[in-house]
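Re: that backbone. Tokens:
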């Protein structure tokens, strides 16, 4: 029986699934003690066929494809967990590439009892070889874009609120009820909140490395972070005490800028405050871009990175505010109609 079940949600990932499977095949952990369960949401781009072809050439690593009819990540993960037979669960994504010792270090921490969830650092890489994609990758891995999410940039191990993906004991996951399928986004964070509430801990180890490919275009980035902000409100509705400073700053910033913009129509003082705020904000973005440009020797970051950072801040913040407004409006409607 495998010791480790690696679970992977998947939907139309034909371009990257081979990279992931190759990385898993090259793990320092014993292949005989691993199984890979890919939960596919009815991919239409040849992903399943690519997996089948890969299996035929690598028969010494067990790979199983299960169907995820709901086509959302938490449902995919729960389906994969139900099909798993390992003592430990290591969750990855179809567009990630774990380092060769990824599984080995995760299992070592779990067996040592370091924490109930173990994860590591994302090495965020561009999703394409374009100046936009490079700018997005740098913005997503910058502290000004990631806040205090250590898994995006830190080299210091320690207990944290969340890590990407994660490695767990299957028994614990089942006892917690698996992933919350009412949250198509933030399902990892939600699980980590429940781990903490049940007396568990989450451990970040920067030696656990995984390449993560960022979004390719500004449009994709905007959609991603708007959804992050929107669904964060729904998660906070369940666990209001789980909120972190990095999560509240973007909506407060967006709201503040909107108030200043509206007030500037009527008062000169608001216009001055809006101008000063814009100058300070843009200066901070340019400083971050200059540092990244010098480090990467890429002048295109001077133009692209500030744009990417603005998209991250404003889309996350506006998604959060919109979701909060919808929630408040819905409650008011229920109150007026007397419904539960």
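Recovered sequence:
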């Amino acid at each position: 029986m495998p010791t480790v079940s690696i679970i992977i949600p998947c939907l139309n990932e034909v371009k990257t699934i081979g990279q992931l499977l190759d990385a898993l095949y090259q793990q320092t952990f014993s292949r005989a003690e691993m199984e890979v369960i890919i939960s596919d949401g009815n991919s239409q781009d040849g992903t399943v066929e690519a997996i089948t072809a890969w299996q035929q050439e690598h028969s010494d690593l067990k790979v199983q494809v299960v169907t995820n009819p709901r086509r959302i990540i938490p449902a995919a993960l729960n389906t994969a967990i139900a099909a798993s037979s390992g003592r430990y669960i290591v969750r990855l994504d179809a567009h990630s590439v774990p380092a060769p010792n990824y599984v080995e270090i995760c299992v070592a921490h779990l067996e040592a009892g370091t924490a109930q969830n173990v994860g590591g650092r994302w090495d965020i890489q561009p999703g394409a070889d374009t100046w936009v994609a490079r700018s997005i990758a740098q913005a997503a891995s910058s502290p000004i874009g990631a806040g205090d999410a250590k898994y995006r940039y830190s080299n210091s191990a320690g207990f944290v609120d969340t890590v990407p993906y994660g490695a767990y004991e299957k028994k614990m996951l089942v006892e917690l009820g698996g992933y919350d399928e009412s949250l198509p986004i933030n399902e990892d964070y939600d699980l980590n909140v429940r781990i903490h509430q049940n007396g568990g801990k989450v451990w970040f180890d920067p030696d656990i490395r995984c390449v993560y490919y960022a979004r390719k275009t500004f449009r994709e980035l905007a959609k991603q972070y708007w959804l992050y902000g929107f669904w964060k409100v729904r998660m906070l509705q369940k666990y209001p005490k789980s909120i972190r400073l990095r999560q509240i700053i973007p909506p407060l910033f967006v709201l503040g800028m909107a108030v200043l913009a509206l007030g500037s129509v009527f008062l000169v003082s608001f216009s001055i405050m809006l101008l000063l705020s814009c100058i300070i904000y843009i200066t901070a973005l340019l400083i971050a871009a200059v540092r990244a440009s010098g480090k990467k020797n890429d002048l295109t970051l001077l133009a692209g990175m500030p744009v990417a950072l603005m998209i991250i801040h404003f889309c996350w913040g506006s998604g959060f505010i919109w979701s909060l407004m919808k929630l408040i409006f819905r409650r008011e409607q229920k109150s007026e109609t007397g419904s539960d």
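The beta strands are 4-10, 34-40, 62-67, 88-91, 96-98, 117-125, 158-159, 167-169, 202-213. The CA atoms of residues 51 and 57 lie 10 Å apart.
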